[in-house]
């Protein structure tokens, strides 16, 4: 019987699940909107239901366990979600243990940035590299760093919160409670805020027409920019500039061989890349400017593949994975 793992990618906006083979191939997939405002009980029930749904599609496979990539901060050693700002009401939630109990399966939990970095490192654009940075740009901004062939984990596994670098000292408020974080300026959520201002400033624009009566989002900006909307193209250029500032910082901090961008906003990579690369060229020291910055090779599946990789291909620097085991399997 072929072996595989279930990967769960928990985001503040969407929840994805997949069965992933040992070679990193997605064999079954499902997704729903995350009931983030409903609290942890509702979201954990969603996660269990989605895992059962994809499992039912492939009863022929031996499932080794479930990996979860979740927004931080979280303690990957104890499996506790400490206080993720993109999930309402979450405070010291024993996510790993609760899902293991619900599914009667071994479960491994890690930061979604770490998980995605691991997936990209094992099966995507980071394969074969010893020094590599992955950045996910979605509802928030997260990431993972591979240095000297090991995933940088830090105390309690809390390293890699790149979205909370301060970019502008007196900048907009961030969900973490600080001001001027990279996430508050360049995430998909931040782009949505800018889009709403643009719609208010010009209600006759193509962007405004696409938005209609709904709240403007980064997806609206992407769609309008692809149709040539001037306001949306300007927003994308500003998005690229803001991303470039943070990426220049990461180049100087970690000196990677490659930086990879994933997450929902990476689908607009071609729209913001020119401004991003111009900003990197202007801000990075010459020795760092030639480092390639590319979109994820795994696309929107990087989160579920990375979560499954926590079971299938764990980071060698972490030591043997010790998931929580229950008595039966789903």
UniProtKB/TrEMBL annotation:
It comes from Segnochrobactrum spirostomi. InterPro entries: ATPase_NBD, ROK, ROK_cs. PROSITE patterns: ROK (PS01125). SUPFAM superfamilies: Actin-like ATPase domain (SSF53067). Gene3D superfamilies: 3.30.420.40. This is ROK family protein. CDD domains: ASKHA_ATPase_ROK_BsXylR-like.
